[in-house]
Design goal:
By secondary structure, this protein is α/β, with parallel strands linked by helices. It is built from 9 helices and 6 strands; from the N terminus they run E-H-H-H-H-H-E-H-E-H-E-H-E-E-H. Strands 3-2-1-4-5-6 form a 6-stranded parallel sheet, with helices on one face. Strand 4, helix 8 and strand 5 form a beta-alpha-beta unit. It starts with a strand and ends with a helix.
């Protein structure tokens, strides 16, 4: 394959979590007096670390979210994951092919390590990822769209940024990958292609990815 490392985003790329988490986020924000639709949650928060939710709400309303906001939200999300979460269709096939071809890969997610672990355990993806192949925005000072997380993952995996490809489904993630000097392949299953500007390739079916990487 043309790259020495494939860096996967997690939510929406490996696990089909974006509909679940954004439905719950919109509902919780609305409960707290910050009316938010599902579509607005996808637009504003998809692919972002939790600090973006706090920052945008305070910027727009002058009000801070409760101190236990993250704890309550994650408890709701994890409970829903246990009931509903599935791997993205075709993701396991891609991982099987990368293993067969000896191509290193990892995950670099805006979500917490706990969120990644819960999602992978629930969907069975945990068997495909060694602990040292899992990177979170918790590991760096700034989350996406800053390039820090992707650069950190590449450094830890021992691969130069220009030899990496990022697989992303959010505008923030695409911006982060481009800023890191990496090629980005935009997954359009949930995000309109025009919102993933800067991606080298766009694809809507995970089954297409291996062919694009060759």
């Amino acid at each position: 394959m043309r790259y020495d490392l494939v860096i996967f985003d997690n939510d929406g790329v490996l696990v089909d979590s974006e509909p679940i988490s954004n439905r719950l986020l919109a509902g919780y924000l609305t409960e707290l007096g910050h009316p938010t639709s599902y579509e607005e949650s996808l637009r504003d928060y998809m692919g972002a670390a939790m600090h973006r939710v706090h920052d945008l709400v305070e910027e727009r309303t002058g009000q801070r979210l409760p101190d236990d906001f993250d704890e309550v939200f994650h408890a709701r999300v994890f409970a829903a994951f246990e009931r509903e979460l599935k791997p993205v269709a075709g993701a396991v096939d891609v991982l099987e092919r990368l293993v067969a071809d000896g191509v290193p890969y990892c995950v670099a997610s805006s979500g917490s390590h706990e969120r990644i672990r819960v999602g992978h355990r629930t969907t069975g993806l945990d068997e495909w990822f060694e602990e040292e192949w899992v990177f979170s925005s918790e590991d760096v000072g700034r989350g996406k769209p800053a390039p820090d997380l992707f650069l950190y993952a590449a450094e830890r995996m021992g691969v130069a940024p220009e030899r990496c490809v990022v697989v992303e489904d959010s505008p923030l993630g695409v911006r982060a990958g481009v800023a890191a000097g990496m090629d980005v392949y935009g997954f359009t299953a949930m995000t309109p292609a025009e919102r993933l500007l800067g991606a080298r390739q766009l694809f809507g079916d995970m089954g297409q990815l291996v062919g694009l990487l060759e």
